[in-house]
Amino acid sequence: MKMKIIILAFCVWSCRAVMENCPCPPLDNGFLVPHLEIYEHGINISYGCETGWKPALGTRWGEITCSNGTWSHSPRCIDSTSCFTPYASHAKPAHHPTAFYPHASLLPFVCDRGYEFDGTDSALCLNATWRLPVCKRKPHTCDSPAKVFNVTVMHPNQDVFENGDMLKYVCAELYMQAALEFMTCLYGIWSPAPDCDDILTVLGETAVFPHQVSEFSDDLSDAGSPVRSATPHTVRKCRTEPRLENGHIAQLKGGMRLSAECLPFYKLEGPAEIRCVMGKWTELPVCKPPCTLDRTRFDSDHPDEYLMEGEQKTFFCSGFKQKRNVRCVNGNAIYGECHSSGRLLNQIFISSYVILALILKNMFNTTTIPTPYQLTTEKMRTIIIILAFSIWSCPAVLEIVLNCRRPKLMNGFFVPHLDIYEHSVNISYGCDTGLKPALETWWGEITCKDGQWSHNPQCIDKTHCAPHVLNAHAEQPLKTSYAPNEEFNFKCEPNFEFESGNSKARCENGKWTLPKCKRKPEFCAPPPRVFNGMIIQPYQDAFKNGAQLNYVCADGYKIEGNDYNICENGQWTNSPTCVEKSPCSREPAVRNARPADELRRSYNHGDTVQFICNRGYTFEDTDSAQCEDGTWKLPKCIVEKSPCSSKPAVRNARPADELRRSYNHGDTVQFICNRGYTFEDTDSAQCEDGTWKLPECIDPTRCTAPRVANAQPSGTLESSYRSGDYVVFRCDRGYEFERRHPYATCADGTWRLPVCQKLCGTPSVPNARPTVGLSTSYSTGSYVVFNCNSGYEFVGEHYAKCVDGNWELPVCKSRDETVCSAPHVPNARPVVDLTLFYATGRTVRFVCDSGYEFEGTDTARCEGGIWRLPVCKGRGPHGGSLHPDPDAVLLPVRYCGTQPLIENGDVTELAGGNELKAQCKRLYKLTGPGTIRCVNAKWTEIPVCKPPCKLDRTKILHTHHPDEYLQEGETKRFYCSYRDQIDISCIHGTPVYGECKCILCFIETKAITAFLYLQIHLSLFSAVII
């Protein structure tokens, strides 16, 4: 029995060691934090990418987790100019999108039904930004039809329908078709909708209806359809493919189902598969968007920018080494509080072994550990109990032992100031006036590790010095003494360089001639000392241009001015100061209260004074006044709330418990509605300052007084109505009822309300006249036909259409006048909706997209059939335009003359004539903008086609990889032998060959080791059983 327990414990420990560790994952052009050869199960490690690269996750920083010897995903760094999966309005990719696309990649799109491309049909990736195609709405299309009561529309999930599309209507349960069952989109207007009559009225109240449906009927998107059964069909029966916003749909094998998949970072909610049942799609899923994180709340070491819906992560707070949890809920990031959190060390088995050894030595009073055969049954039972307790308590004990107490520091202060600091936390410390840290810096930093501080903080006199070369260290260990004329070399610290190029120290006549390390001109020296203040970033001897330092003051002091300092061109922009917070020179006075103790003449910042409210009053919050920087923060005494002396009574309800004679302010009493009634809101009565706020039990079949937008009731409204009652309304002036239906009808507690639509006034078209007499008002959907005056002709439609109270008017132009079609400005959108055509002299204002700004005017102007368009340029790194030009005007490409030449490539004029599309020969890589424009009669930046790298076929196996070329910036892995592999990159036209090595050798070795451990365990157990 004893031997079995020992062997079982050894098996658990050894299997755990073999199965759970992960090897260091390969990562090209990046680095791991921390960097180890082996990582334990459950550990999370971060990884970043070198300059010019970024993680293939869409974030600035990545994280992977080791789980049972396998990483959650393989880290990968991709070119920083690559783009992630794009999204274009009213369009979807023509084929299944990938996670990312290299610079200059083209991704073809397909417009949704009812839309057509306005220009190019492909998205172009340029320097990590997509230039997306634009899908504009086709003419003569219809919006989704208006809702009709008691009717279900059998149409696909789309918001625009083309001219000639037909929709089938199905009546709701207990209603019968009274007319046509189809409606048609004709030139932007739907034909009249069919009516559904009450079937009880048509067939009589004795009619019987089937209610049993098959299991598939639950999947129908419109559950009110009266069907006997539902049989799944092929997806072709539903004609139009459903649309999944922020995702895509793919047909599964067999043609009976569709699969739904979301774009990266979007979360699929709902069924992942869609079926076609009785010509209708089953429930469609939704791709919920991710949460965009507020980067100002985090430390710079955590560059994640998005969280998926429902995802939760832990980040370091900005400033001190504290953490906070962040969760994505319904597209909103929920931020937890910042709190300290130490790491529990996973050393249970090692600690248990040490405890077991000490127990055995103590039992036998020896210096060696006895064998299991020397133990009695009673001692063995005691050891097992103690061992189990040690395993349970070990993590908590280790966490306490590894924490650090606040170190002693004379004449100084800590930030933050705590009694206990957790393992691995870093804290800063500063010294009082006239003193400095013994580190040759004016603020210091120490680290808690395994219960010990990295060094003992100490404040010394500021006149103290030590013999050394500032900002340098000796290349060899220093000796105690040096002979005359003896020399040795120093090496400058990073960001410093030797003055006059001399790096040698020379002993001359008992004195040292020392080199000097001066700071590089683009770096800033440590900022000036701020007394009673602290910089929360780690200390450095030099700071890069643009570096920002943040300050905090000691207790009792406050920042005067900005709490930050920025390095600009070798100089600090400002120097904050910490000033003492002011005392309170006058006595505090609280209305309707008196002080609990005698008052003093003056109080320091932070002092408090307790008060007592007068009779009949009570404190609203705290009972103490506090001095804050010379001003009293006073408590407030409010009138004490009265109790309720009467018992509460609720109509059509009874109390859930026995009532008392009296209730205090804020007390509640729960009630139960009588049969046939339900609570309208809460089920409890509440005492509020001597008055009961009572719940209400209502008949669920009754309706409260109705309200109709833009309408008034014909008579006085009652407080409630029975099911079947109706109220007549009249529309406000300038509105009329949709379908001339003025009745609001109560149906089982729900109102069926009429709709008042806004009327259009009399239309007027310049240079045109109506074909018939005009009315003073028109309903939505009405249209008026016009004829152009003599010498004019229509551009586009010849009728005016009333839409939601506004007219869409036709255009009559002079026969010899040239008009402009609707303008398009790259990286911008119009302020108002565009029309199809514009006469000469007409203008349209635009707004630049986010990250862009105008160069010059923001208005497009039509001149002789040609638009003079504004230009939106990307913002530079400091907020300004990359090429500021107040007079920049985008012109058609023909104004720049001969098209530019691209070596190893060519250009193609895009639709609209305002841009040229650049493309390279096969295997050549486009570097620079993918489109060229004519601005002020000059071409914008011309891209370059970089040549590929030709591979040395002697270094790779022909049978595995027939590739002979790599594109610029491309990296691929090839077999260099039948077992080993080699990574090859193309950099500036030259192939760079990595080391030929075995990639899977570690995995094979680990599998063999696990197999051997398993054989040993089986042998041991067999020996014990025998």
Which descriptors apply to this entry?
single chain; mainly beta; Complement Module, domain 1; 5-stranded antiparallel beta sheet; 9% helix; globular; Sushi_SCR_CCP_dom; disulfide bond
Indicate the topology.
Layout (H helix, E strand, L loop, with lengths): L1 H19 L1 E2 L6 E4 L4 E2 L4 E6 L3 E3 L6 E6 L2 E2 L5 E3 L3 E2 L6 E3 L6 E2 L4 E6 L3 E3 L4 E5 L2 E3 L3 E3 L4 E2 L7 E4 L5 E2 L4 E6 L3 E3 L4 E5 L2 E2 L5 E3 H5 L28 E2 L13 E5 L5 E6 L4 E3 L3 E5 L2 E2 L4 E3 L2 E2 L13 E2 L4 E5 L6 E7 L2 E4 L12 H17 L12 H26 L1 E2 L6 E4 L4 E2 L4 E6 L3 E3 L5 E7 L2 E2 L5 E3 L10 E3 L12 E6 L3 E3 L5 E5 L2 E3 L3 E3 L13 E3 L12 E6 L3 E4 L3 E5 L2 E2 L4 E4 L12 E3 L12 E6 L3 E3 L4 E5 L2 E3 L3 E3 L13 E3 L12 E6 L4 E2 L4 E5 L2 E3 L3 E2 L4 E2 L6 E3 L6 E2 L4 E6 L3 E3 L5 E5 L2 E3 L3 E3 ...
Antiparallel strand pairs: 1-3, 2-4, 4-6, 5-8, 6-7, 9-11, 10-12, 12-14, 13-16, 14-15, 17-19, 18-20, 20-22, 21-24, 22-23, 25-29, 26-27, 27-29, 28-31, 29-30, 32-33, 34-35, 35-36, 37-39, 38-40, 40-42, 41-44, 42-43, 45-46, 46-48, 47-50, 48-49, 51-52, 52-54, 53-56, 54-55, 57-58, 58-60, 59-62, 60-61, ...
